[in-house]
Design a protein that fits this description.
By secondary structure, the protein is mostly helical. It has helices at residues 42-69, 71-79, 85-103, 112-119, 126-133, 148-175, 182-193, 205-223, 233-252, 260-266.
Length: 270
């Protein structure tokens, strides 16, 4: 038996080059990449430099760990000025992307290292600039030589931890009737606020004082409330005000904690 002949479901069309799409998987969404346009590369170059600086730090930490288990291997790597192949590949990709961004901008006449100096990034990302200057050498800037950006990122991480704890506590107080672990959550929130990294965040001090004044009363209420631990309505309202205040204040004060040297770099380049 022969199969019945039917018309094709669809006719194949010839390829039309007008519909070709340029793939830019590794390009930033913050910049206009239309060819011929001169763009301001400040934001993207700074972001790529931050990635490179972090990559350098990780490579140095990896070498430190290897040194504790095999000192001779570490010495042979550092004395010969060699870096690992995986690190070199990733670093060269980032450096190449920075150079490409610079070529599309009004600063295309600059060498990359000169443009980074022009932005004032030496103090923010010392490991990255050291690697760009000497691509085949291991960065010598140690972890003890913290850059301005490293310090600032530490502050942001701790502040983010405080905000997330406050948000979680606010949600638990509003939606959960069993408050068995609320005292523990308040204690953790207080410890996070009191860390050394957040000493300059003076806007958190009123909330720290408020916790000191009310914590014992809340803990005693929970411990004496029977089978279903809970806080009083007044304490519940205090916790809601406390946690929402921490979140709103931290978000509104982000600009105030930016060090002047970093704020100068984030301004538009003239």
């Amino acid at each position: 038996m022969t199969a019945a002949f039917t018309n094709p479901v669809a006719d194949l069309q010839q390829y039309d080059p007008r519909y070709k799409v340029e793939v830019l998987l590794n390009e930033s969404m913050l910049t206009n990449f239309k060819r011929g346009n001169a763009v301001d590369p400040t934001i993207e170059v700074t972001a790529l430099c931050a990635q490179l600086d972090f990559l350098c730090l990780k490579e140095m930490e990896l070498q430190d760990r290897r040194g504790t288990t095999n000192e001779k291997k570490l010495l042979s790597r550092t004395q010969s000025g060699q870096i690992s192949n995986a690190f070199e590949t990733k670093a060269m990709i980032l450096i190449d992307r920075m150079e490409n961004v610079l070529l599309r901008s009004a600063y295309c006449q600059y060498q990359l290292i000169d443009y980074l100096d022009h932005l004032g990034l030496q103090g923010l990302y010392p490991r990255a600039l050291e690697l760009i200057s000497l691509p085949k050498a291991v960065p010598t800037t140690t972890r003890s030589q913290c850059s301005l950006m490293s310090d600032h990122i530490t502050v942001l991480c701790k502040l983010n931890q405080v905000v997330n704890m406050a948000h979680q506590l606010n949600s638990d107080i509003a939606n959960i009737t069993n408050h068995k672990y609320v005292a523990h959550q308040i204690a953790l929130l207080y410890q996070s606020i009191c860390t050394n990294a957040l000493k300059k965040c003076t806007f958190l001090q009123p909330y720290q004082k408020s916790i000191e004044d009310n914590f014992k009363h809340v803990k005693n209420t929970i411990n004496s409330s029977g089978d279903t631990p809970h806080v009083t309505q007044q304490q519940k309202q205090w916790l809601l005000d406390l946690t929402s205040g921490i979140v709103n204040t931290a978000v509104s004060q982000l600009r105030s904690i930016i060090p002047p040297d970093i704020a100068m770099v984030t301004r538009p380049t003239k």
